Amino acid sequence: MVENPSSSAVSRREFLRRVTALGGAAALAAAIQACSVRGIETQVLNSATGVPGSPASVLEIAPTTKVTPSATATAGEATPSPTPTVTPDDGTARVAFVKTNNRAEGVRQAIALLGINPVLGKSVFLKPNFNSSDPAPGSTHPDVLTSLVTTLKEMGASNIAVGDRSGMGNTRQVMEQLGIFQLSNELGFDVTVFDELTAEEWVLIQPAAGHWQNGFWFARPCFEADALVQTCCLKTHQYGGHFTLSLKNSVGMAAQRYPGENYDYMQELHSSSHQRRMIAEINKAYNPSLIVLDGVEAFISGGPHAGGRVTPEVILAGTDRIAIDAAGVALLRYFGCQTEAARGKIFEQEQIARAVELGLGVDRPEKIEFLTGDADSKDYSEIIKEVLTAG
């Protein structure tokens, strides 16, 4: 979706076949432009005949098996640059690794280490972890959110919106309890409560050869943002996810219920034996511009709201969800993870394995490079790299 020099592009085989209830040519043009920003080829089909030219109702995402570079230009940039995740030359996903117990400073250092600016002149949607109102690592720490918003503004973001859907509580109430509305007034960002979106503000995604019965609804504000940034926590997940890092954080961008329907998509997700594969499939709907993982504290059991707490004292940043999550699982294992995330090869964990099948990032641990800025971080990262490659 956004450009940076260390990246894997969205495949050109991804294409827009149908667009949800657009209600007019202007909305259709906006949706096509949004897809274009992501490097997705677009074709609008008549829902009855399959003939190009008229609005329809579904966005079908074809799977990819090969990561290939591409480039797109967007407003506010003089020249295009590659889309994120891996470099075209060596296929390496670079992950900033900062040993720290200072979240605010760690976020700034990690982003600086990446040496990229994917938000200059762009409207940014920031997806935190507001699954519940529990304190970090149950939810995004206010220091992380404050530092991230401030840094994105300094990097030249034209506008920032923060939004989520809570899985363990009413989203607006969760945000109120976390002080998000007050923080938005202080820092100057918009707040979007996904539970309150209208039917027209959701896009139906149907991953080809996916495990969702009838696809899932994805928040249009995330789909159409110039740049999507997400920040996740480091923790295990006791309700079938095994771990909840950047891939799992994307679940908050999918609807529990589509307005006007009673069907519970999250019930489908959490009751399915394919839950972890379905989590990965949600990630086909977008390409992140930046990911920041807060690992200053972590849950190695229980989760996502409470659990056995440890203090890894690390901040990670990158653009490759697979690399971030693989590193996160390695950290959980190093600190004594007590869930299914501790078993088997890291790249055989179902969330990660399915993400690899979908072409969402690197396909093996050897392609992950840690970027550090001091001796302590370097020594720490080398220990985690050993866990990562051994696992």
Q: What does this molecule look like?
A:
With 391 residues, this protein is α/β, with parallel strands linked by helices. The protein has a single domain (15-64, 88-390), classed as Rossmann fold. Helix content is 29%, strand content 21%.
Quick structural overview:
With 391 residues, this protein is α/β, with parallel strands linked by helices. Helices cover 29% and strands 21% of the residues. The chain is built from 12 helices and 17 strands.
Main beta sheet strand tally, sense and closure: 10 strands, mixed
**Secondary structure tally: strands:** 17
Radius of gyration: 19 Å
First-residue to last-residue Cα separation: 31 Å
- The name CATH uses for the topology is Rossmann fold
CATH classification class: Alpha Beta
User: What's the architecture, going by CATH?
Assistant: 3-Layer(aba) Sandwich
Q: Uncertain regions: pLDDT < 50 for 5+ in a row? A: 1-57, 62-88
Order of helices and strands: EHEEEEEHEHEHHEEEHEEHHHEEEHHEH
Count of DSSP H/I helices: 12
Structural class: alpha/beta
Total domain modules:
1
Helical content stands at: 25-40%
Tell the overall outline. globular
Please tell me the overall pLDDT.
82
Strand content: 15-25%
CATH superfamily: LarA, N-terminal domain
